[in-house]
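Here is one chain, start to finish.
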Amino acid sequence: MCQTACNTGYAYWDIGVCVNICPTNPSMFGYLNGNTRICVSSCNSSTTGLYGDVQASRTCVANCTALPQATFGDNSTNLCAKKCPVSNQYGDPNHPNRQCVTWCSYIPNQTYYFQSTKMCVTRCPDGYYGDNSTTTSFGLCSTSCNLPYYGDPVSNLCVLKCPYGYYGSQIGAHLCVRVCPSGWYGINGTLNRVCVQTCDLGYWADGFTRMCYNIKTMCSNNTYADAQARLCVNGTLCTSGTYADPSTMGC
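Its structure:
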């Protein structure tokens, strides 16, 4: 039966039929034009603020859906995209309208750009670290950090002080490590925990544990604390003029 308007819940397709879901070929979306729902080829996000959402029964929406897959409003295609197509844009779940953005938001939570998924994330994936150390790296998920920051595998952030039990490596990707690289020694400083090549005065470098100790008896493998060399050494290798004292484990 011919009628002047489509029933509630239906949209008018300009081939002269009313449909409950607009077609996929050609790709069209339901748009509310006044009191009439029509099928359109583009939601024209730049003027309407709406995006074509396949997950929302092929309708034009202001907020792209998050389920079953997270989508974000993309102004270049007027669609809700699973992965933002513009090279320098990222899907921001913090954005009030779930849009593709150039700058990830930091309210209500700091988010970071993750290039692989083109997403703004509150926590970078393992092996990546949220970096706010420079203007060029601000808000990036990076595989390395800029000194004096170190990649913390506990928080996945670039931090000034590594967590307890970790030491900032000043070579390579500048990560917090449990054991320092060969030739470097971990020291628990007041301001930071870092790997150093020479232990501070009053400390001894232990080549077995790669740690700096300030208590003689902490030198491992029956080695002796040599104050002049700042090393834990075999008893026969104490600095000339000194000798190994088993009672104090020092030279």
